[in-house]
Design goal:
elongated, 14 strands, five-stranded mixed sheet, alpha/beta, Hypothetical protein af1432, Nucleotidyltransferase, domain 5, six-stranded mixed sheet, 47% helix, 522 residues
Length: 522
């Protein structure tokens, strides 16, 4: 990432990594050649999982998170950023009330959060590290990237060109501290218990490492950066402005481990370079790094200052560059016209296509009893494609903006009544259900009002099933009896957000089907 002098940026964006311990934001200018330049940064410690991961986030933690997002939004607005990309990890993804936090972020701050699965988190971290440091070449063999967060730890084996292995493990320092550490200083028995847990949890990482042996451990994110800074001070090296590419040996780490592991909280607070908010979490991080270095016999460690937030940027740039290719060739003027519209509105393509797929699965299971037609099926799919295009105008009220855009887009090949149906179905994917007082719904014929209610009932639940916007639901099984409908969801990672998202939007579906909807994990 070199500072550009002659080039003019094509867009300024903000990327936010909503971690378990801290929220990191970076604002960058993107240039036509795909490079980017950092304009500003902000880090806010929030300590979301103060009561443990997988539990409800406390009201105080939710408030801290919202306040941190407000500060980031203020900075982003001040820097005239055109787009905010916010990605949430373990604490929000797993929390019972993570969906409530995501909704508060939309309502109170105007920031839309995507809750990504661990696999995607690892991939984005890998992209950032490959981009930010001198990676081993093919001849030198790969490096083992380890990103220690509060809730999870990502392991990626990669060289300069490609990934050989990536995974996310629930071994973050906040999680391990809450589970294993009660004494201060940490007791030998607690260290042994953690090491045993690491050994059991990292079997597959060890197997991948045996196939692709790495000679260097590359650490990213706060815990690894803070350990590196403390070692640099202890070795009487003056840390540079950036910790990127800072190196230390396994022996230097082991010496620091021996120095720090037996200290109590008050003594750890006196270590030069320690981050105040990491004093409590340092022992768990030290034990993990020591275990990895010893188990995999790695002698060198280097630091990447780029992590998830830069990966978010790189993924966005790649997607933008890919969209420079020609719009897919579609002969049907109806479908082509919708695709042209959603591309102009910078649609959330992966989410919208997934919601459309889920919608059609539900449609097919209820087509007969709801007396729906193949034309209804097409209109539902295309409405699902368009349901979020209102974000092009504003996060707040985007469902109403979608109605306006669809009605005024001059879509080709549709009857006016069909455009009105799609616009209303998209409008009712969230918030209010159809009401007689709503102007555009009121003007529909009785028959089309019934179609809108049925189709929007399906779309609401399908949209809720991708509440994370990261296609977590891999398979949806539908069964029913006289009184209940059962949706069994098989997901890639924790299903809390999807079940919460669909459950809070199921009332209209229950009304049109006459059955209670039960949504449960597979």
């Amino acid at each position: 990432m070199n500072e550009p002098f002659a080039k003019r940026p094509i867009k300024r964006i903000t990327a936010i990594d909503l971690g378990t311990n801290s929220f990191h934001a970076v604002i960058v200018d993107i240039f036509p050649d795909g490079s980017f330049y950092t304009v500003d940064k902000l880090k806010e410690m929030v300590l979301l999982a103060e009561k443990g991961l997988g539990e409800r986030l406390s009201d105080a933690a939710l408030d801290r998170g919202i306040e941190a997002l407000r500060k980031i939004k203020t900075l982003s607005d001040h820097q005239q950023s055109e787009l905010i990309l916010a990605y949430a990890t373990s604490a929000i993804r797993e929390a019972e009330n993570g969906g409530i936090f995501i909704q508060r972020a939309i309502d109170e701050v105007g920031i839309k959060i995507n809750a990504i699965p661990g696999r995607v988190e690892a991939e984005l971290i890998g992209l950032a590290v490959q981009h930010g440091i001198q990676m081993p070449t093919e001849n030198e063999g790969p490096g083992l990237i380890m990103d220690i967060g509060g809730g999870s730890v990502e392991f990626i084996i990669a060289d300069k060109q490609k990934f050989f292995y990536l995974t996310s493990k629930k071994l973050g320092v906040a999680r391990m501290t809450a589970r294993f550490i009660d004494q201060d200083p940490v007791h030998d028995s607690e260290v042994k218990a953690m090491r045993k847990h690491y050994q059991e949890s990292l079997t597959d990482v060890a197997q991948a490492f045996a196939m692709h042996r790495a000679s260097v451990l590359i650490g990213s994110s706060g815990t690894m950066e803070n350990i590196a800074l403390m070692i640099a001070y202890r070795q009487k090296r003056s840390p540079s402005l950036s910790l990127n590419e800072l190196e230390f040996t396994a022996k230097e780490f082991f010496d620091f481990y021996a120095f720090a592991i037996g200290k109590n909280r008050k003594q750890r607070a006196q270590i030069k370079g320690i981050d105040e908010k990491r004093i409590e979490l340092l022992p768990a991080g030290l034990v993990l790094v020591k275990f990895v270095l010893e188990t995999f016999a790695i002698n060198e460690v280097k630091i990447s200052s780029q992590a998830l937030r830069e990966g978010i940027i790189l993924r966005y740039i790649k997607k933008e560059m890919d969209e420079l290719r020609e719009l897919e060739v579609v002969e049907d003027p109806r479908r082509r016209s919708v695709l042209e519209l959603v591309h102009k509105c910078e649609w959330h393509e992966d989410h919208s296509r997934h919601v459309a797929k889920l919608s059609l699965s539900i449609f097919d299971a209820f087509k007969g009893e709801l007396e729906l037609t193949e034309t209804d099926r097409e209109l539902l799919e295309l409405a699902a494609f368009m349901h979020d295009i209102g974000y092009h105008i504003s996060h707040r009220g985007h469902h109403k903006h979608a109605l306006y855009i669809i009605r005024n887009a001059d879509l080709l090949g549709f009857k006016e009544s069909e455009i009105e149906i799609m616009a209303n179905v998209a409008r009712y994917h969230r918030r209010s259900t159809p009401k007689a007082r709503h102007e555009h719904y009121r003007k529909l014929t009785k028959e089309n009002k019934a179609r809108v209610k049925k189709l929007s009932a399906i779309l609401r639940v399908a949209d809720g099933l991708d509440r994370s916007h990261y296609q977590n639901v891999r398979r949806l099984n539908i069964s029913k009896n006289d009184r209940k409908t059962f949706f069994t969801v098989n997901t890639e990672s924790d299903p809390h957000l999807e079940i919460w998202g669909a459950s809070r939007k199921k009332a209209l579906f229950e009304e049109v089907t006459g059955r209670e909807l039960v949504i449960e994990p597979g």
